[in-house]
């Protein structure tokens, strides 16, 4: 072969290889930019931070070919319009909590958390391996959405109260910042639920516009300074036993993704689900120590208040289920799962925690 | 421009583009095949299955460019040589539990689980956001390894006993299949620990070669049929409050990976960490129902046995810490973390679970 001929054939070979390889690469790993709108502010480094980690992981694993830009609440749409923005395609996806949208349909809450629902590990197990995600996503098709669990706060606190609450009667007429189904449950036993944005809770408590307010737990609450304007910090937040934050993706946008990116969104959402819970679990203990050292009075809700709230919740669920087949379907499934969960939980987990709590002073 | 000249230049352009683009692609997303050896058999779909999901996720997100082939225990090396195989580069990585290697150094156990250590969420929080992973990985450098949490079983059961164990004295001379530090702890209060491979536990219990055996929990134990040869099923497995299974990667192989693949291994290990716990949480409840329906007798370890075991554990830890600075460093860190964890855990989480367990019969 002449040298000139060799060079031309080698060139052809290289060009041929490029022609075969390039389209495959272009199809499977295209350059894509998405926008994600969050229901949360950047200041919540636990919640917002988990989705930041998610977006970072997606970008890293694709050498920045798939970039998801995360916008805080209010940057594109307000906090409680995140789901709509993903649903109507304004953005490709949202980080939000289903239970913010019970005004559309109370079924949304079951994907997140229900008063007296599952704890954090159980909610994850139900969604992941208990059939919960399939049911929730069937429901979300009505809103052009597919959702992936992407964080959990763990059991929250019952909130900040300016006065002690001992009897159910003490709740009568009490103006409390609490929303969604939890507000509906407490309304049945006398509470007057108030809608107050996170940024306005402090001023409302200070002025006495509200008598009580629930937010999240020690780490987040301390940052907003509630300990300065309310003395009593009640537990547990029985309406938030283990709320799941979801990534909700517009289905049409989802279907346009190559399989590699779909897989990566699932995997990185799972990572966020772990990260958010781990951060809360690591950051809450020092925060509650600081709060108690600063004078915050911890109080448990009395058994009478818990019992009255449980009855109110069960009454409410029966009323909703009677007229909403979607709700009934998901609720019945979750309740059956919960019964088995707590039957098992009390054996190993609870008895272990119980012993560890009792023996703590002995080191 | 003449047609011939144009074609040549276009060809050059394409070749040029390929020349520029290909090396970049080759560097960032090269074709890589790794082998992962597991300490677990395929039959444990919970544990082994989580790493299967991990490998699948890595392959999917890279369009099969990065393939990690998972080998069950014994296929490349025996179960308890998985760490050595990753350490010496026989394989690139392993799925294993640090506490299998306490013969090398008891410090290994702190990355997994210690008797009276952290529960599942706490262990994840310690490793993820509490400084635990950094300490564990500092230690693992001595073995050419870097580790990523990749699964947790939750609190395990205390195992199967052929006779009831009521007093500490009942443990005297009891031959029990239990290993590692847990075996050392129980030996201090009379148990005679036995090394028995998972596949031989059933026969050993049946023949009476051992009087008791611990394995994992209802879902895994039921598959091995222990309920047919031992009547009493004790709880909690206080030596396995929340053991973390790790992916352990040979550091030299790790350093050769492009950043995208490093990031993906971390992200997909987190996914496995979530998946294993979710599967155990979903699958254990039906299993314990079946076991109890079939005649298995559930028994709680008595407070006296727990107290004697706690004292034995603390004595053992003091002995090890006195002569092993690595152990002391990680142990002291974990113990400080644990104290804050349980101080907080008893507030919201435990009181919520407590109410949910108490109110269960009322629906």
TrEMBL record, chains A, B:
Say which domain of life the source belongs to. Answer: Bacteria
Q: Which InterPro entries match?
A: DctP_fam (IPR018389), SBP_TakP-like (IPR026289), TakP/all3028 (IPR041722), TAT_signal (IPR006311), TRAP_DctP_sf (IPR038404)
The record's keywords, sorted A to Z, are:
Signal
Instruction: Answer yes or no on keyword Signal.
Output: yes
Recorded protein name is ABC transporter substrate-binding protein
Q: What CDD domains does the record tag this protein with?
A: PBP2_TRAP_alpha-ketoacid
Signal peptide limits: 1-26
What SUPFAM superfamilies does this protein map onto?
A: Periplasmic binding protein-like II
Q: Which Pfam families does the entry link to?
A: DctP
């Amino acid at each position: 072969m002449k040298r000139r001929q060799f060079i031309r054939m080698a060139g052809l070979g290289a060009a041929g290889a490029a022609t075969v390889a390039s389209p495959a690469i272009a199809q499977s790993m295209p350059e894509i930019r998405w926008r994600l709108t969050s229901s949360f502010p950047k200041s919540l480094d636990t919640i917002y931070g988990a989705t930041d980690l998610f977006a970072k992981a997606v970008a890293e694993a694709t050498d920045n070919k798939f970039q998801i830009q995360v916008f805080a609440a209010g940057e594109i749409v307000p906090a409680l319009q995140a789901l709509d923005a993903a649903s109507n395609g304004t953005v490709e996806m949202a980080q939000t909590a289903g239970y913010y949208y019970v005004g559309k349909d109370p079924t949304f809450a079951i994907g997140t958390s229900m008063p007296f629902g599952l704890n954090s590990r159980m909610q994850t197990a139900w969604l992941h391996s208990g059939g919960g995600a399939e049911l929730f996503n069937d429901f979300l098709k009505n809103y052009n959405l597919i959702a992936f669990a992407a964080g959990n706060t763990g059991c929250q606190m019952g909130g900040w109260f300016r006065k002690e609450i001992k009897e159910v009667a003490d709740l009568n007429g009490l103006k409390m910042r609490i929303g969604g189904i939890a507000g509906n449950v407490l309304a049945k036993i006398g509470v007057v639920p108030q809608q107050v944005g996170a940024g306005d809770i402090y001023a409302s408590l200070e002025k006495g516009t509200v008598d009580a307010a629930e937010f999240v737990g020690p780490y987040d609450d301390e940052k907003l300074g509630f300990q300065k304007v309310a003395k009593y910090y009640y537990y547990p937040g029985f309406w938030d036993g283990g709320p799941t934050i979801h990534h909700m993706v517009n289905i049409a946008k989802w279907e346009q993704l190559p399989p590699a990116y779909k897989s990566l969104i699932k995997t990185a959402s799972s990572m966020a689900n772990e990260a958010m819970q781990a951060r809360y679990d690591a950051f809450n203990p020092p925060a509650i120590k600081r709060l108690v050292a600063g004078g915050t009075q911890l109080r448990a809700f009395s058994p009478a208040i818990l019992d009255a709230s449980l009855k109110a919740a069960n009454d409410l669920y029966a009323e909703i289920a009677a007229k909403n087949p979607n709700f009934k379907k998901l609720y019945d499934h979750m309740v059956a799962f919960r019964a088995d969960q707590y039957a098992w939980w009390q054996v190993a987990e609870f008895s272990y925690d119980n012993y560890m709590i009792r023996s703590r002073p002995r080191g």
